[in-house]
């Protein structure tokens, strides 16, 4: 009985060739993904070094005598960023300056700003997200514009207004401008919009007032956003310089950055002492940021969800 055997056409690829063709696009996509990942990692490393290298140089020179600050800059070598004979004279010299009082004042101002500012910003964000009223969009637009304007641009006329209110050289005058932070309200409002409306309706059916909805539903679900907003309020006050320079002119109300600037002499600068003071001022926000960074990342990553 004749058998019908047909040879594969020379133009048609065999099974092995077809499988090889299927593997090539996948392999190319993996190579492109790895190349892109490598480039992003390299770019991140370069940006990280650009931030870390000056900090390492400041830390190293805070452990050297002031006369050796610029000794190892030319040529640049390992001794530029590392010292084998560290000394603590610059840090002990800080005791005789006003930096300690300035740091305590900055801590007090920042702590009060975080507590009171979170209450104001969270309630404002709740009103702009959960409630419906006429002119809501206009109010939110004003808040957005408020944090787009640099604060230093309005600091001088605002300081004249505070002087008329007798708030100069008072902690109230130093704290008030940091309480209503437009960026914090913007971030909290967007986070509140991501909370399901079904939870609000269920709470209202159970007899909760709007304050109860805010206190029992919104706040417990918004811990990452509140942490992120609190960190923003803290950093705003901790690194403030122009406003405390205008409003805190006496020694009792000087803040950390202003106290650090006051350590400069009129004709000479003790760089070792300045670098030691800078390191001390950096440590407090660094500890706060490292301990709360995961909450800040969560709040930023979810602020655009709805």
TrEMBL record:
Domain of life according to the entry: Bacteria
InterPro entries, per database record: MetI-like (IPR000515), MetI-like_sf (IPR035906)
Main location as per UniProt: membrane
Region (Disordered): 1-27
Keyword Lyase carried by entry: no
Comp. bias intervals (Low complexity): 1-19
Localization of this protein: Cell membrane
Membrane-protein topology: Multi-pass membrane protein
Keywords: Cell membrane, Membrane, Transmembrane, Transmembrane helix, Transport
Transmembrane segments: 38-59, 107-131, 138-159, 171-192, 213-238, 271-292
Chain ranges of the ABC transmembrane type-1 domain: 103-292
Protein family (similarity comment): Belongs to the binding-protein-dependent transport system permease family.
Protein name: Carbohydrate ABC transporter permease
Organism from which the protein derives: Nocardiopsis codii
UniProt lineage: Bacteria, Bacillati, Actinomycetota, Actinomycetes, Streptosporangiales
